[in-house]
Amino acid sequence: MTLVEWAQKVCAELELSDELGKADVDRILDLAKDAAHSVARPAAPVTAYLLGIAVGRGADPAEAASAVSALALEQAPRSADGA
C-alpha cells in the first residue's frame, strides 16, 4: 500500500470529503522532514498535526506548509563556521 492509498483510507475512515493526492502527501512529508531535522524528531508529527488544524480552519495548505517549513529551517543549529 502506498502512502497516498493509506491517506485516502484514513480520509474515508474519518469521513473527510477532501481527496488527498501525491502532492499533498509530499508536502506533508517535506514539512515533517524539515521539522524533524531542524527542530527535533518529535516535532514532525506535532507540526503536521498543527498544519492540519490550520488547513481545517481555512489556511491554504501550500502557503501554510511553506511558512512553517521556513520557520523550522530557521531553528536549525548553525555550524561553528556560520554555515
UniProtKB/TrEMBL annotation:
Domain of life: Bacteria
Stored InterPro entries: DUF6457 (IPR045598)
Pfam families in UniProt: DUF6457
Residue span, DUF6457 domain: 2-76
Name this protein carries in UniProt: DUF6457 domain-containing protein
